[in-house]
Amino acid sequence: MQITITGQHLDLTDAIKNYVDGKIGRLDRYFDHVINAQVVLKHLPHEKLSNVADITVNVPGHVFYAEAHDADMYAAVDLVADKLEAQVHSYKEKLQDRRNDHPAGLAAIVDVD
């Protein structure tokens, strides 16, 4: 998976880059072929919750997006990673539910009884 991390109005340190890589790398549990992920970390000094983390993840057939605001950048990354993981988990469950709906298989069960 290719992860692109950009910062707006802040300096990206190796620590925050490694932290984001670790959080986004957890998505490999759900999808084998994640195309790429774009992470934008912003510092907005005029707002109360001044740190923003935006993540866009492209997988075959779908695009996931999440955004989180917090006073601490690490907390914002945690929040956005949790939101994204929930979206991916929900999407994966929806795909599995559709695969298990086989009208022909249900008709065969009814005919047997």
Automatic annotation (TrEMBL):
InterPro entries: HPF/YfiA_ribosome-assoc, RHF-like, RHF/RaiA
Keyword Nucleotidyltransferase applies: no
GO MF term list: methyltransferase activity; ribosomal small subunit binding
Top-level taxon: Bacteria
Gene Ontology biological-process annotations: methylation; negative regulation of translational elongation
Spans traversing the lipid bilayer: none
Alphabetically ordered keywords of this record: Methyltransferase, Ribonucleoprotein, Ribosomal protein, Transferase, Translation regulation
Keyword Ribosomal protein listed: yes
GO cellular component: cytosolic small ribosomal subunit
Sequence similarity: Belongs to the HPF/YfiA ribosome-associated protein family. Short HPF subfamily.
Subunit record text: Associates exclusively with 100S ribosomes, which are dimers of 70S ribosomes.
Annotated protein name in UniProt: Ribosome hibernation promoting factor
